[in-house]
User: Fold these one by one.
Assistant:
Number 1:
Amino acid sequence: MIKLKKGVLISALSCLGVTCLLCILGIFGVAIFSGVGLRILLIFASLTVALSASLSDINIFEKNKKIAIASLSLLGISLVFALIIFCSKLLDEVHIFNKITAILSVFSIMFMMIVSLYTKLENKFRVLQAITYIVVLLVDILISLLIAGVNVLSVKGMTEIFGVLCVVAVGLLIATAVVSTKKENATESGETQGFIRVKKVEYENLIKENKALKEEIAMLRSEKK
């Protein structure tokens, strides 16, 4: 798992470097923001986002394999769909496949963020988590409707509501991330003071093994007598 994390991290940083380099070349007049150059830029940008997001799923793989696999699958499907668009004529067209891909990509990123935060906080700060996830979900729904072609912003006051939801969502995500980081630091502090976290199953197995060893030692002592 450690080797996989390093490989994904190196790949993400490499794609990020190429993406930045292409953008710099485009600023200096190289044909990057149109034609084949734009396709290459979008491919590397998509790889950067997907690989970076997958690092979070890989980190939670040991805690919850099913959720991690589901999140990685969504990211993988979104990436494949995006690459199909960038490598075909679909990029120059307004096609329903493009809309589906965009909606799926937004949902994948949202799902990854929620899974990452929930895995770190678990059952702590439930109210904060619930409010954060609801607001993020509302933003995702509105964005998906806009991508699908539904002009929800034409409704009176909806533009202001959408803007407020976006600001609140960002604020809540930052607050939740800070709280989760604080929780991790507190856990690490406890471990350095002589405490370690052990799963209940592992703890019970240790007790059984300890009991079995004691019985074996007792039998050996009785045989010697």
Note: Confidence is low (pLDDT under 50) at residues 188-192.
Number 2:
Amino acid sequence: MAKKKKKTGKTITQLFGTVFKWVFFILLRCIPVVLIIALLLYVFITAKKYLYSDPNFIITNLHITTDHYYPKEEVAKRGNIQSGARIFTVDINRIAESLEQDPRVKKAKVRKVFPNALDITLMIREAYAYLSFAEEKAFFVIDREGYAISACEENECEAQYPVIIDGATVRKRIGLGTQHFTGNISNAFFVIEYLRNDGYYASLEVKRTVIDRLNSISLIVGESGLEIKLGNKRLLDNMQKLSHLEKVLEGENKAKIKYIDLRFDDIIVKK
């Protein structure tokens, strides 16, 4: 029995010795790999420290491409591009998202241009008309897709865009950046485009395009507030009748007329 114990003890010692040799061998083979990794890590940290401290990599140029005017100062402010920001640390996706928070910006794309510039492409929503509702005093500036890009009070709005009053939409509130594009708004845009192209918008002195509760479109023209009713069907046919109204609307005649209904023939109501 004593001999067996001695033999067992010797076997365990040999086993530990073999394992130790293999571990030592593996560690010995890994030393070059560890040294190479350590060297690469040192080079990376040193290079990073150098690049982050080099003033040549501080963003000093913003190259802005846009289809409409957008101030460079506002790009920096809205994009939260800090003074002294370095091109390695700036988050271009965050900048693009921040710029798109502006209701005027439809799409923003930002690209890094080494060593010290950002290339920013902006797609700007173009103001097309003022929009208000029958029960509201505020006016929204909307683009061709019906997105609200700014707002103003009636007495503060500049007379540079057509005015649309949507009386068919009740109890709806829209905010900046939201879309309000209904069939009625689409019809109003169609009317405005037709009148502009044929010169009637200026010659008639159109003040407002009004949509009533029955979805019918009317024009409010001249200082007298004459109403020209177009309806909501056969808009093109009804607008083509405007050419026959030139003599009727000349001089003092316009001031004596309350409204003209182009949905029918020869419907002129005087005051």
Note: Residues 23 and 54 are 45 Å apart (CA to CA).
Number 3:
Amino acid sequence: MLFASSDKTLYSTGAYSKHDRSVQVRARYFIGGDRSKEVESTREWRTAYFPTWIATVSENVMCVAGKRPTGNTVLELWTFTPPQHSIEYSQQGAPPKHVVSIGERTVTTLYDADVAGRKSVRTCSPVFGAASQRILVQFADSNELSVFDVATSAWTLVATPDSQHAVGSTFHLPLLTQKFRYVRVFEHATYGWCYFLSDLSDAPPDDLDAATTLFLYDQDKNGVIEHALQLSANQFDALGFCSASSFLTNWKY
């Protein structure tokens, strides 16, 4: 969700097409809050690279990741003015027409380079709790998780499947080689900001004791991930994560 109005009538969301090299934003307005009475508008922007992932990092701000034909990996911040709803009145006495429009876009390039270990972005999501804006990124070639600080342009390696790269505070997580395609971010009453990487399959795993989910969390909510676990389905359930009441908020990327 890129934008949601406080009265729950106006929304905007993003989508991308890798092969068409395009990113779309769709705005919807529910007339009088009635979900059966909807007007919408879609706007598309072509990119000079192949988009590989998008994620809302704050209201009206989207991180767009991609791969240039020349090989560079790209990270951009797209900042939008809020979508608008208006009513157009006809002079001929026709019923008023509800119109929704998509805001204007400003693009900031965060990263544009061809570096081993950062060849392509598989997933990204916001990192909450820090004083500066930060983005959690998993790269496709190395399967490593890194945090990018928007204010300083600095990368911090958070987790890696390669034991030789797991030095200092970097977590060694062999499960990263499973190439998870989804990230869920939760605010938890006990564990603080939580980041789950999994395939989100509805079918239970064949082995309930085999690790299938990565769980990283920032318990003191200071924007630094201090803990990481590889969880089986049984461990996930035992920690109470199957109970929605434990979570204060959640997002899917």
Note: Residues 233-238 form the longest helix (6 residues).
Number 4:
Amino acid sequence: MVKGLAKLDVRPYRPSDADSVRALLHTRPELDDADADRRADMFQWLAEHNPHAGKDATYFVAVDRETEEVLAYIGRMPLDAYWRGEPTRLYFGHDLYMHPDRRNQGASGFFTTMKLYGQVEKSPGPVGLLWTSPLNLEFQRRRGYTEVSSLRLVKVLDPIGKVLPGLPRPVADIGAQVARWSMSFAERSLKRVRGAGVEVSPIRRFDERFDAFAERTARRLPLVVKRDAAYLNWKYIDRPNNRFESFAATVGGELRGFMTLLDGYDEKGEAEREGFIVDYLLDPDETASLNALCHHATLYFLERCAVRIHLMATERRLVEKFNQNLFLSRPVDPLMVINADRGPAGAHLDTLDGWQINCGDSDGLCFWGLGRARE
């Protein structure tokens, strides 16, 4: 039967679906075979090893009723979370894909998409949607999901290219190198002053200190994912094809925060190297550790010739502190929320201040972090 016309059942993903999902991912036109296999490995890791999932489904699949072949799927990441320090449940929807034959059938593709979203809408708690394509964003608006403003913060590391974009290439390269040296000297000097007393060191594995820090810091934040050691090791240490690097800030041996970084190209495939602060957890009322980690991240990406650094922040006090570190706010696609009315009592999930959102809360940058380091 033509895949676009097959009768489908939509159900939770099962580990036995893994080979069929891998075959489906090989139909993605933007992926070569090696990239498709890496994405399949990551899909299976997110689907089968989430330490917060419990009995909740992590993906929903649309399968051919006769052959059980997976022809479409949508991810729903179940997460433990805190609302003002109290435990709660939160979800992030992500990673929608459909076989091209099905998608090109018009009505069949549309109704399959509706069925998949319908499964996510049955979630018992709020579902955030990040990294949404323009087409999916329009679909979500038509479904009546709550739209919340979101901010991406950007720090420019290539001021020469921004101010004088028309320079000849050799002159621009020399100017960029001089600018990087100057910025590196300034960042090191500022780190000694603005991050005085804070030690920044690589994280080889997240340990029990992060459990206590996540619980303690959550009392100072609105709705936030529980960043305990199990979650962080699953997301940034044990995952397949890992390219993330994490750093801890400590004062006198006491943990004061962390950042997870990703070095890579931007989503448009341009030849400029981008830096991403994928994840972090910081006390919004403590400044020196945030400053030290920001300066460390800037030096990290300057050494790798990145032209800018991206991060996402929504909590007002954290946004102000990032602004002071020259991360400038710019509007991006909104956070869409399914079931905003199912949040914890007193949570206002239709406002920016109701959440603390990071780039890594959904899976977008988990998939960006796949594969070969591109030089």
Note: The chain has two domains: 3-145, 151-332.
